[in-house]
Each structure stands twice: as structure tokens, then as C-alpha cells.
Design goal:
154 residues; 5-stranded mixed β-sheet
Length: 154
């Protein structure tokens, strides 16, 4: 695999990102395969909103022109922790045929460096309770399971 380049996703990357998000036992039930813009405008509208928001970055790991990984970084100002900004990492995925090669570790290291460069003092993420391999991975990076998270579908 060629050297990884981490960059902000473009509109042309959206189909590959959607494939990464759907290629997962847990998320398969809530994601669909990439569709033309005319079929499912919601994905395209979401991309446009993320792309226009300076506090959101949709990142791809590019290896020789192929998208092999992705994550979304959201930067949130806060009055807690003495007014520090925090980064939330969402939707971390590495293409199935590229897993186990350290690409996820590189993507996370790059993301944490991105947070530091922006002056963030905290990085946080959530992961489904069923993702035990992901839990071990995040713990190996120094993340601690410090909070209980809750969600509600609206």
C-alpha cells in the first residue's frame, strides 16, 4: 500500500466514504450503499453542511488515490475545563482489506495531532458497546472509558 495522505474529503470522495460506513455488521442496518445524488439527497446535503462548517472536518486516508479510511472531526468550544476546545472523533473506518496494517493507528495519530494544532485540550469519541475490538484499539492509543454515553433516536 502506498504512503497514506490524510486530507479533507471532497465531494468526489463521498461514495467511497459511504461504502466504508456501510461495510460493517453493526452499521449495515443504518447505512445504505452509495447512491446517485438524485436518489438520496440526504447524504449529499449532509456532506455540504459538514464541508461548509469550519468546526467540522470530514477526513479521508488516501493511499495512491484510493480512499482507504475516514473519520469526522468536530471541534466544540466549551466553558467546562477552563474554556477549552475539545475534538470529537466520529465514524472511524478503515477499508476491510486494509485492516490490521496500522492504518487506523496512523489515522488516529494524525487526528490527535490535528486537535493539538487547533489548541484542543481533550479528544473524545464514542463507540458501540458491541465493538470490543475497537475498545481494545482505542485503549491502546491511551483513550480511557471514562463516561457512560446515552443516545435517543428522534
Amino acid at each position: 500500500m502506498a504512503d497514506l495522505n490524510f486530507r479533507t474529503a471532497t465531494r468526489a470522495d463521498v461514495p467511497a466514504i459511504l461504502e466504508l460506513l456501510a461495510d460493517d455488521e453493526i452499521s449495515r442496518s443504518r447505512e445504505t450503499a452509495p447512491t446517485p445524488e438524485s436518489v438520496d439527497a440526504a447524504y449529499w446535503s449532509a456532506f455540504e453542511a459538514i464541508d461548509a462548517d469550519p468546526r467540522n472536518e470530514l477526513i479521508v486516508a488516501d493511499a495512491g488515490g484510493e480512499v482507504v479510511g475516514t473519520c469526522q472531526l468536530t471541534f466544540t468550544p466549551s466553558l467546562s475545563r477552563r474554556g477549552t476546545e475539545r475534538m470529537t472523533i466520529e465514524a472511524v473506518r478503515i477499508r476491510r482489506d486494509q485492516r490490521g496494517r496500522g492504518l487506523g493507528r496512523q489515522l488516529m495519530a494524525w487526528s490527535l495531532d490535528r486537535a493539538r494544532a487547533r489548541g484542543c485540550r481533550l479528544a473524545q469519541l464514542t463507540t458501540d458497546k458491541r465493538r470490543t475490538d475497537a475498545h481494545r484499539f482505542y485503549a491502546s492509543l491511551g483513550f480511557e472509558a471514562s463516561h457512560q454515553g446515552f443516545k435517543i433516536a428522534l
